[in-house]
Amino acid sequence: MDGRAVRRGAGQLSERTEVAEEHMAGAGLQRVAAIDCGTNSLRLLIADVDVVRGELADLHRRMEIVRLGQGVDATGRLAPEALGRTFAMLQDYARTIADSGATAVRLVATSATRDASNADEFAAGVTRILGVAPEVVSGAEEAYLSFSGATAELGQLRDASGEDGEEDKAGSVPGKRAPEPPFLVVDIGGGSTEFVLGPAPPAGTGVAGGTGASGRDDRGLAAMSMNIGCVRLTERHLRSDPPDQAQIAAATADIDAALSKVASDIPVASARTLVGLAGSVTTLTAVALNLPGYDSARIHHARVSASRIHEVTLSLLSQNHGERARNGAIHPGRVDVIGAGALILDRLMDRFGFAEMVASEHDILDGIAWSIVAGGAGSVPRL
After folding, report:
1. One fold for 3-137+365-373 and 141-363
2. Over the range 116-126, which residues count as b (16 or more CB within 10 Å of their CB) and which as e?
């Protein structure tokens, strides 16, 4: 399915959908499609964005493991089989987008395609399938988008009692007051981890910012990207099953060196709340809460203590593939890399002194959706 097919599908909407689109236009709504193409996963969000009320309502949210970054750290190239998996899933997404009646789409590609020497093959395939070119954003831009998506709702969080609660056996801390800014938002991906510090953005504005590895934008956000991710560290260090202590020590050294750089460039000590994003974090949250399966509603905005994250990390790193695979909360595509993701989160909570983390299911996808209606840079043509 190519870009022309996407446009044909959008043009063959039912009469009911066309009426709904007319209503959306009159009400100041725009239906958009956001795609996040990371090192490990390919994710899609179709949402109605109300530019008047500053609200975003999910219509369709999906994640598939395609492992686009397979072997990139060693070869410097996107593997043919990885490109094949990614393009096949994009064709499926394209059909969903066309059927939804979304009027604009933006695909943001992150660490794997920044590092690949054959990134042009990836760009050509995406353009052929979706009819829009992918945007290979810098680590800082990726962090800004993640921050926007993750923090928009935090000011509304408050337990009905309004009182602090005790940590339960699963490590969640109920009854807390609304998380307080400044927020340190951490997005643990497959190839890199993004860090961004700042206050919550005004609702509905999205976040735009500077470029480069680190920096501060005109809204007071400081961000940077470090090449520590669950896939990269697993391929580089955690090669045995389970990894031995020497391998864990080597991965820990890489993480600690990256965190030292973060601490020197970003005033992380000023952060009042740690917000964790992306599949490694949300999966760890599910494991920490002892969920029998992945449950987005229970994971979103759950608070997990540092002690519980440390306990889960030690457990995952001591388990073999079969033991991790038996945990219903871990997606099969994350079984091999979840230990490295846990180690990153555990080390940063210890290094920066966070007693707990707030997990968020809303992240760069939501930020991409906001950026479309806010006029963010990139390819957002009408379908």
Report:
1. yes
2. bebbebbbebb
